Predict the structure.
Amino acid sequence: MDLDLVDALEERQRQLGYRSGRSLLTWGIARLVLWKGDPDITAITYTDLATFGEEIHRWCAMPEARTIRAAHVHRNRRDSDPATLTAEFEKACLSRLHGLHVLLFNTGQVKEPPFHGLKTCELWREELTSPGTPPAIAAPVNRWLSGRLQTTDRAESVRNCRDAFRYFLRWLAQEVPDLTSLAELTRAHFEGFLTHQHERINPRNGRPLSARTRYTYISPLLQFFRETSQWGWTDVPARPLLGRSDLPKLPSRLPRFIPRDQLDRLMQAVGDLEDPTREQRCCSYGGAVPAAAKSPACPSTASMPIPTAIPGYGSRSARPTPNA
């Protein structure tokens, strides 16, 4: 196998926007080469890609495929439905095969265009809601998301909102299949969704959803229903059904206060460094360099007092009063 050609193809794939270019490339090429029995990468044709895709479909439809996939997943997912595991595996394989098709089409090796068109980062704009969503539900969501796309909002922010709505609408379709309009929503529906978020287990790690993940799902919904009710839209609830108190509390991280004894040892170690600028750096942190190690570069550092607590990082008493 020509490894130089593999490197060149990887570079081209990254230019096309694939972040994990190497893994996508080696997955497809290695399996096609083994399947064909021919190490010549330049001999891969459209027929090979299409036939290999059919083989993936055929294998995933076999009954034993479910047993094999269940035995080759992380232990946290072994209790999942085998049919779901097989469907996810088939989708992942075909996505990687499609990526190889896009690459070979762009390099000119394959003349036929990819099965579903070129993968670009803008395709999500064409389907802001999932296909099959009732029109009365999809209309206000599409209108709101489209409006945000046409304003100053970043596309990535709108895409995150779109993903949050897709998740919420899928949940509605499963739990409230008779719902035909967002105007029919009640507070009880949102309480059920919030409970679902709190109890849901992440299939990747077997743990509950983090507060940050739940926040990203709920925050766009809160903004949507608050704004649309204020604007008087008739196809949404007349009043907001979510409030700020429904958002998960995000953990706040503050710098740790350094006790005096630890700060003394730190300053002693800094004084032993053979660096003429160490005193200036110590001054900026409020520390004092031992007099024996002090240099003329910072004549006042030896006499600088070490505060009991750095303002804003420990004791309230260390903060200056308004009359100070």
